[in-house]
Design the sequence.
């Protein structure tokens, strides 16, 4: 089959997969081809999209999956369309909670509250509703509290391939200075938000 037809098929598959995206292994299985051939098709498709200024979409690798996404250069228009992106409507409490979960996951509500020094039930509910965090299991401790972690949507929003791409924290943080630690989480996390918005 000609390369152009393979790329059209892949475009259809990525569109159908939506936010879930497709791993290279899934692409190989559906298109019945070797990884090297699938990689070549994905790479050429990415180059085609990026080089063609008449296209509004491109292909990116996020969290181990290839996804069809809108180009960053059109973000201003997308913002006009969607007046209130999900994260921008978060309160400071929500952003602080999200930052703590991002850096400390998996983490329980009580542990988050120990860092923040205030209740976090409502911010956690909001973050869950927005799909930015999820229940990732229960701690093997009395009461088996729920542990929280970030989602694939979190990685997508902040344009991260892996959670390890978050800004690094200092090597040493005094254990008794939890407020400073919380402030640091928020500061670093806010920097990521700001850089994404630029």
Sequence:
């Amino acid at each position: 089959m000609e390369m152009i037809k393979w790329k059209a098929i892949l475009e259809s598959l990525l569109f159908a997969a939506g936010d879930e995206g497709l791993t290279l292994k899934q692409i190989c299985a559906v298109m019945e081809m070797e990884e090297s051939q699938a990689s070549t098709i994905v790479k050429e498709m990415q180059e085609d999209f990026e080089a063609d200024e008449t296209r509004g979409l491109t292909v990116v690798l996020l969290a181990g999956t290839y996804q069809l996404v809108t180009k960053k250069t059109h973000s201003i228009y997308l913002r006009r369309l969607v007046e209130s992106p999900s994260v921008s409507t978060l309160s400071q409490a929500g952003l602080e909670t999200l930052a703590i979960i991002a850096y400390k996951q998996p983490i329980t509500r009580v542990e988050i509250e120990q860092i923040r020094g205030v209740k976090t039930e409502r911010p956690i509910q909001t973050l869950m509703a927005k799909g930015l965090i999820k229940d990732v299991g229960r701690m093997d401790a009395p009461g088996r509290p729920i542990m929280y972690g970030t989602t694939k949507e979190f990685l997508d929003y902040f344009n991260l391939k892996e959670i390890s791409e978050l800004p690094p924290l200092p090597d040493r943080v005094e254990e008794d200075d939890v407020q400073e630690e919380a402030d640091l989480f928020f500061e670093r996390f806010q920097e990521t938000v700001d850089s994404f918005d630029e």
